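Here is one chain, start to finish.
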Amino acid sequence: MKDTTTFSIPVLFNVHSFQTDLISWYLSIKRDLPWRLNQDPYRVWVSEIMLQQTQVDTVIPYFNQFMNRFPTTYDLANAEEQDVLKSWEGLGYYSRARNLHAAVKEVVASYDGEVPHEKDKLKKLKGIGPYTLGAILSIAFNQPEPAVDGNVMRVMSRVFHIEEDIAKPRTKKIFEDVVREVISHDDPSSFNQGLMELGALICTPQKPKCDQCPVQEHCLAYEYGNQTDLPIKSKKKKQKQTDFYGLIIQNKHGELLIQKRPSEGLLANLWEFPLMPKSELPIEEWFKQHYGADLSVNAKRGQVRHVFSHVIWNIELVFAQVEGEEIDYGQFVTADQLKEYPFPNVQYKMMDEIL
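Its structure:
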């Protein structure tokens, strides 16, 4: 494999024909998705943030309820963070929601609520990386900017037979340069969405539907017969596993102890049942140190496993009773009140075991 940092479009590659075939196909088959009703930059922005690392079918109901709740940049900017997180609840990768909220506040404060169309202004907003920047500029503002995600890298690696490891950060720049060379300047919105749609529906990771591909005649990997060998992607490091006790603690009124997670880090500002890292320290002693109250453990039963992108949590559920009324951290709520707070999916798995 060549170790290069640049890639040149083949001299005989018919860029205009490739653009025409891709755009014509896209316009004829594009899915009826709620964020495609118009090119409103705010709607495009919200959809692209939600679609990061999340399937389209999963995003659709979240997008609809989110836009109903926060239909304009002003509505989102004026919302409380806990309300935003509650609307995002279950979608995962919650830093996306917090960054979107912060960035929209900046749009309202600095740009009168209008999403800026200038590249230098847009890329300074929190949470907008190269892909989201290109998606907004091309889809909403018809600017010929590349929007390169995993789908696009897979399509272009096959079309141009690019043998660079897409797991390496520097490789993305190669694909951005390639897309910038071949993108339609007449309809960049349809071109970029066409590449995304092609990767999602036809040029799939396994068993690509080459017989249905609108750009088959342009595809070098198809010509060579090794399309399933591309893209090249090195394996990720094995995920770390962390073991916890999940403490299901009631007071004498039958209320449950929950707490808000720190404002930084994984699952920031969401709510949870207390999680105790497993160690040689007795649960009762650990709880006394951290919460200032005595605890009586009733039983250990039930296991919950949750996989994040970089770590796996293994949680053993512990049912316990707190002595007295005062604790130093957290708050007690009824089972009915739990639905008022934004919880991450891992905590809902715990709820399924106890409610």
